[in-house]
Amino acid sequence: MNTVINNEQSTAAQAPAAVETAQRVETERECIRPSVNIFETENGYVLEAELPGVNKDGLSVSLEGNFLTLEGRRQNQGVPGVEPLYRESIPADFRRVFQLDPAIDKANISAKIEQGILTITLPKAAESKPRKIAVA
Amino acid sequence: MTLTRWQRTDGCGTATCRPTNSVDDEWGQLFEAFGTVFDSPTQWSPAVDLYESNDLVTVKAEIPGLKKEDIEITLQDGLLVLAGERKDARNCPTEQAPEQLPGRFQRTISLPYQVNAGAIKAAYVDGILTVELPKAEEAKPKQIKIEFN
User: Fold this and answer.
1) Among partner residues A35, A39, A89, which is closest to B99 by beta-carbon distance?
2) Please, which residues have CB within 8 angstroms of residue A103's CB and are 6 or more apart in sequence?
3) Which residue of A has its CA nearest to B132?
4) Within 13 Å of residue B75, how many CA atoms lie on the same side as its CB?
5) Cα–Cα distance for residue pair B53/A51, rounded to 1 Å
6) pLDDT digits over B11-58, tens only?
7) What residues of chain B, 91 to 120, have a C-beta less than 8 Å from chain A?
8) Nearest-CA neighbor of A63 among A108, A12, A5, A25?
9) I need a surface site. Which of A18, B6, B79, B132 has the fewest CB within 10 A?
């Protein structure tokens, strides 16, 4: 069990421990998927998402069953009252949904956001960590 | 004025591949267009926006996850260069293909107006770098009084 996340494009043959879902976004606003990096550490997983322009007030991280939803409303985009002369950034908010590995201890998930990088720490429950069994 | 982003053909460092123009077009733009944003062959390439009001040219770049001291802003010969380095704090491999790349970025913006270099202000908030460049007096719009005899 070493896959934590699978993007929608990956083959169904794999049996991932956690799958990113392609759930339909039911909001009216157009949303974009933030880039994420996911690391496995000794104690669990760390998910880092890029949310430029989102601060603590515009951020929502919610857990529903096994689904973790990140939503970020941008606040520092554009110049009020001024049309861009040239634009590469996408004027939309962020949203991405992940299905979690059942081994994750959902009660102890923590999140912080700093300069547009959201870091979510997903610890593994104690019973799912590897342990030595003494031989009598 | 048309503004086209220079694009690496391998799509590296960008979230999506956009169609590219021919090399001739790119070089043509390099020499004729003001207000053009160029990529440099660096590890990643943040999105840059340009805004213009009567007194100011504002440049915004999405560069999440940097430290203020790792951002370099230079202005020379009407070219504003934004550069910096995102340091990768983690050595452990990612679970999927990494979507955020560590390393250097550099974007060069050919400013559409002369600016007052002494009065440039920069701020880095929520992963967005904002550089405000006040237009030089001669670049500001002026009312011309016409006198009728």
Assistant:
1) A35
2) A1, A17, A124, A125, A128
3) A79
4) 17
5) 27
6) 444 444 444 455 555 554 554 455 667 666 677 889 999 999 889 999
7) 92-96, 98-100, 112
8) A108
9) B79
Interface test with B, best of A10, A37, A39 (most B CBs within 10 A): A37
Which B-chain residues 52-81 have CB contacts (< 8 A) with chain A?
Answer: 52-53, 58, 60, 62-67
User: pLDDT digits over B106-148, tens only?
Assistant: 999 998 888 999 999 999 999 999 999 999 988 888 888 888 8
pLDDT score for B27: 53
Alpha carbon distance A82, B140 (integer Å):
16
A99 CA to chain B: closest CA distance, Å?
14
Q: Which of B31, B118, B32, B133 is nearest to B82 (CA)?
A: B133
Q: Which residue of A has its CA nearest to B53?
A: A82
Assign A57 to helix, strand or coil: helix
Q: How far is CA A2 from the centre of its chain?
A: 18
Alpha carbon of B7: minimum distance to chain A alpha carbons (Å): 12
Give the strand pairing for B79-86 and B103-110.
antiparallel
